[in-house]
Recover the amino acids of this structure.
């Protein structure tokens, strides 16, 4: 039986291109489209049979690349993703890529060889763009690639704006963003942008501490920041990890949270299911992100049309690190 | 070429039995040993060639079953295990089993069909014993099975004793163990035993709160306990999750930690790599546990002799939830 790979080979294009032509989904050059249509005619290709056949060839496994699973946000996301993939009959291979781009490239190569069926990637590695192709079943979380790779992210820009608003309306006199900056374009830098846009709109006194990654001593940098700017009484931390470190550092210096300094994090993930959020934060909709990522990946694998940019809403959680409003 | 599975089939025994006969490792009945030796002779089996052949047939993947990856201890263990497996050329498939014994059985069945090469299991499911076989490459963390399955655990009994000693010598007047009890035999119940043995040895006033799992409202149970026993001024929590909930609950009730009540947890795992431990706890040697589990599994897969019970030392971390000594 003729399968989609035969069509791709006959037309001299990638699997993704054949998929886009069939589903009229995404951009394809006119000349390329003609090549694919000619191949389909030549081989007497029948999409439905092929889809079934294609499915039978699959390993029924999807790899998840995270910088490290030892992190509440990534472990929470992995928890929900594995659940959703499992409901779809897929096993999940876990890869901690931490500063090992070769490991990531290896998984992309497994994908090219059909040893795995799909890839969900949370990655900030430099230089990965050249290995990523929109022809492959990849869903990226938080990061844009040059190629048209589907991505899922929370609405970081809104998150930054909400955090600024919440600090301003809770009586802060000077507020700051504290975080780091990756050299790789990713959605999370919009947190700072949203924050900055909002405070500038209100002409509100503010500071921005944005350290270049990797930051080896977050606590030390936080300490130094507060020695330099002791008047800052409201902080938006780039994520909950930073927020936890900032809160510990303030306590160690005898400052009370939220009485002296109010702190808002970003992520909104507890260490485990049975625990409740304690400090104030911008909550990402992690179960929904995992669900949408799974759905998008299944659509690519099954050659169905789908969205390319999936941006999901966030909300403020009022915990014990901000004052009552 | 004859392989080990042929030998097992010819002898009418499992792969693990052939392995134990070849490596003179672990108990084998005399009659069984003779059957295996006869099969080896009949088939002119050559262990080295076979080992190579066997290796080539493998999927090069190992599954890790955890109750949930959304938990600092499990995510930390998974982080280190994936690293070690990766160094050995194995991918790691992650399975969150949470109250789904069928999912666990499915992985055991994949193992039997050689779809995966090994299994590392952290599981507390009832009724799993009948599916586990010492013939399979399985390493269990914290739990004993009826069959001779290799297990890796931290020294829970010592951990309980150390926690009791630390609370007693830090000026507590009445100390308590707070935790839950699974109906499945596992190593972590030795934490309570170690604690109890130590306080009894010293005739020290103590309380034990051991709730039957699953516990749906840990915070509520903790609240009730302190209403009933307000004199308790030192707590050993069964794990860090319990410790975090106890500390939050005490704070919410206006009690100061460690001034009014001292608290010691068990696990000693931070939410992420860059963070430091805050409260006092008994530290499990997680990287070493992952290393030993990987080593043990590789030994089983490669038919090399190895230990059956691997118990690793713990240590006390003096954090901000106990007084200075």
């Amino acid at each position: 039986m003729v399968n989609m790979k035969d069509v791709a080979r006959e037309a001299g294009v990638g699997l993704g291109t054949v998929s886009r032509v069939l589903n009229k989904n995404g951009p394809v050059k006119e000349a390329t489209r003609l090549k694919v249509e000619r191949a389909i005619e030549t081989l007497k290709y029948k999409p439905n049979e092929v889809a079934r056949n294609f499915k039978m060839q699959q390993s029924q496994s999807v790899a998840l690349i995270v910088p490290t699973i030892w992190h509440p946000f990534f472990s929470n996301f992995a928890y929900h993703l594995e659940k959703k993939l499992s409901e779809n009959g897929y096993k999940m291979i876990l890869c901690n890529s931490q500063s090992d781009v070769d490991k990531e490239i290896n998984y992309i190569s497994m994908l090219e060889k059909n040893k795995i069926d799909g890839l969900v990637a949370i990655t900030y590695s430099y230089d990965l763009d050249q290995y990523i192709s929109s022809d492959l079943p990849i869903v990226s979380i938080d990061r844009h690639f040059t190629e048209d790779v589907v991505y899922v992210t929370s609405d970081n820009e809104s998150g930054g704006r909400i955090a600024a608003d919440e600090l301003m309306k809770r009586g802060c006199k000077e507020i700051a963003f504290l975080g780091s900056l990756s050299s790789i374009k990713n959605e999370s830098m919009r947190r700072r942008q949203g924050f900055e846009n909002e405070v500038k709109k209100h002409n509100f006194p503010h500071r921005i501490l944005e350290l270049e990654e990797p930051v080896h001593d977050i606590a030390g940098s936080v300490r130094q920041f507060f020695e330099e700017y002791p008047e800052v009484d409201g902080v938006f931390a780039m994520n909950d990890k930073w927020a936890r470190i900032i809160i510990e550092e303030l306590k160690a210096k005898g400052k009370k949270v939220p009485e002296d300094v109010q702190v808002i994090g970003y992520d909104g993930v507890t260490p485990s299911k049975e625990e409740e959020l304690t400090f104030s934060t911008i909550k990402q909709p992690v179960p929904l992100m995992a669900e949408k990522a799974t759905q998008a990946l299944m659509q690519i694998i099954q050659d169905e049309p789908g969205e390319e940019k999936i941006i999901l809403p966030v909300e403020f959680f009022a915990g014990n690190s901000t004052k009552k409003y």
Chain B touches chain A through 36 residues (CB under 8 Å). DSSP finds eleven helices and twelve strands in chain B. The two ends of chain B are 67 Å apart (CA to CA).
